[in-house]
């Protein structure tokens, strides 16, 4: 699994992710895997991925071919982009859509946090899109990261990047599916 964190504070947005990959009980750290990053750069947007490692390759392939049609500037635009992606996941990448018969919608089986000049956003597996005002975390270490984010956010000595890093480090300390080193990016947010 993974831990991805987004923070907005003082006109700056930050996204941070761990770099550990796991296959069952086997840990593959960044020391052994060259393509260990979990944050994709699509146009002006950073996408932090949680879920099966194959999605990193799938999303990179999809957005390399369809990046011009992708919009990440509002929840509505992200939703439309993600619905097109979901169709491609089924048609081109062989997503197994059936998960739980009680689910009202088919899952895309991936949770993604996003950062761009428009803000910080999240897309859950059932394509629920949210825009966050302060911070959020997805992944196996999200509970640890969210606790750290809550505790750190109002500290005036910490900027968005420092908060995101410390929250992801907290997840790596306590979650066995989250590991160092971290990958982080920052963006100056648009006013408004």
Tell me the layout of helices and strands.
Elements (H helix, E strand, L loop, with lengths): L2 E7 L2 E6 L3 E3 L2 E3 L10 E4 L2 E6 L3 H13 L8 H17 L19 E6 L2 E5 L5 E4 L2 E5 L2 H11 L7 H15 L8 E6 L4
Antiparallel strand pairs: 1-2, 1-10, 2-11, 3-4, 5-6, 6-7, 7-8, 8-9
Helix pairs in contact: 3-4
Kindly describe this structure.
The protein contains four helices and eleven strands; from the N terminus they run ββββββααββββααβ. It is α+β, with helices and mostly antiparallel strands and 192 residues long. The protein has a single domain, classed as Aminohydrolase, N-terminal nucleophile (Ntn) domain (Glutamine Phosphoribosylpyrophosphate, subunit 1, domain 1), CATH 3.60.20. Strand 3 and strand 4 form a beta hairpin. 41% of the residues are buried. The mean pLDDT is 92.
CATH class call: Alpha Beta
Portion of residues within helices: 25-40%
Radius of gyration: 16 Å
Percentage of residues in DSSP E strands: 25-35%
Largest sheet, described in full? 5 strands, antiparallel
Q: How many domain modules?
A: 1
Principal-axis shape equals: globular
User: Kindly, what is the distance between the CA atoms of the first and last residues, rounded to a whole number of angstroms?
Assistant: 34 Å
Question: In the CATH scheme, what's the topology name?
Answer: Glutamine Phosphoribosylpyrophosphate, subunit 1, domain 1
């Amino acid at each position: 699994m993974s831990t991805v964190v987004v923070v907005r504070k003082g006109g700056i947005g930050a996204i941070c992710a761990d770099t550990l990959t796991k296959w069952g009980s086997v840990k593959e750290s960044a020391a052994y895997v060259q393509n260990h990053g979990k944050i994709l750069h699509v146009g002006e947007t950073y996408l932090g991925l949680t879920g099966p490692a194959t999605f990193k390759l799938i999303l990179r392939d999809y957005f390399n071919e369809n990046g011009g049609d992708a919009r990440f500037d509002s929840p509505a635009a992200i939703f439309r982009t993600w619905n097109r992606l979901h169709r491609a996941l089924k048609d081109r990448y062989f997503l197994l859509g059936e998960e739980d018969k009680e689910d009202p919608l088919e899952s895309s089986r991936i949770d993604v946090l996003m950062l761009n000049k428009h803000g910080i956003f999240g897309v859950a597996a059932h394509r629920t899109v949210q825009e966050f005002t302060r911070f959020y975390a997805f992944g196996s270490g999200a509970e640890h990261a969210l606790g750290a984010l809550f505790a750190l956010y109002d500290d005036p000595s910490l900027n968005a990047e420092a908060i995101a890093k410390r929250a992801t480090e907290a997840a790596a300390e306590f979650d066995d599916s989250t590991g160092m080193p971290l990958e982080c990016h920052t963006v100056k947010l648009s006013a408004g």
